[in-house]
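yo, Glucose-1-phosphate adenylyltransferase is done. seq:
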Amino acid sequence: MTDDRAPIGPPYARQAMAYVLAGGRGSRLQELTDRRAKPAVFFGGKSRIIDFSLSNALNSGIRRIAVATQYKAHSLIRHLQRGWNFLRPERNETFDILPASQRVDERSWYLGTADAVFQNLDIIEDYAPRFMVILAGDHIYKMDYEVMLAQHVATGADVTVGCFVLPRTEATGFGVMHVDATDRITDFVEKPADPPGIPGEPDKALASMGIYVFDTRFLSEQLQRDHDEAGSTHDFGKDLIPHIVKHGRAFAHRFEKSCVRSGAETSLYWRDVGTVDAYWQANIDLTEIVPDLDIYDRAWPIWTHAEVTPPAKFVHDIDGRRGEAISSLVSGGCIVSGAMVRHSLLSTGTHVHSYAMLDGAVVLPGVDIGRGARLTRVVVDRGVRIPAGLVVGEDPEADEARFRRTDTGVCLITQPMLDRLD
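structure:
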């Protein structure tokens, strides 16, 4: 446990451990999470979703990081081992991958988000961090946790909850804070039908980002209390936070105070890419001339496993068979061979063959798109082989019968879906 006699002073990030909850399936992403957990889903051409939370921690100055995994974790664990193995214990840096392993008893996997921390308290206490920064591993954003830690210390909070402001009408799917004029949380409501407004801004609400800062000793006590409480679901949002709001000092930290923005970013950017539509849109947004999320910001890099690949290549310069990509992101190892790519994102190692046309396509790594295929508003899973001449995005009824089609017309294409067409 922490040494309470040690002085507290900035930077607080060096006294903190980031604990990333990355065990969720993310079932609303449909077949994209059949073989991988949501945090392991590819994003932006070469990254994974979890890389954003991890990069925020690293860029904030946190050098002790742990990731709790559970659902179909192999892809995620492999990515973490390859891309996040540069933290060194001899520099007081640690990176722990903590799969559910029935450490408390021989019957229980992680029963909830709070239990996923409780079951590893002995590991946390060995490192003796003064603060714990609890993070969700499945959101896209850039945030300086040092600012949130400083507020936590200044207010003397038992817990500080990361929140973002949104219209009340859009807050029904979130945990919502009711706060006073000092942003002390007076009530916490999970997915309310009528969300409480913000003082002075009655048409807006404060929604939880699933980010929490605790003093480690206090968190340990609360986790033990929750573990012993009959009927608890052992979840931060449903159990721990409401209890602390009622019996302790809970404060909201507004995302606007710590959101990291480069000169190219003018708005606050936080996305839950938990549906196929949201995932497609967030990726396609990156193809804008000036996207809301600047992934080119060298002052706040998004760290990931960088595969060794050759440069992207565009070949053939013949009318009607010219390799082109317009308003698109094309990753390393891609070959656009006599094809047209518009407003699309091609992940590492994609090959688009002659006469194919892509418009609004989010293509995951290692995909091969056959000659003459026409793909519009699609998400193509990793390693898929698109047959020559396949047309998707032009006939809603045909798309519905063959693929996973959303209400907005985005089609998710996986290899098993194509195999059923044979």
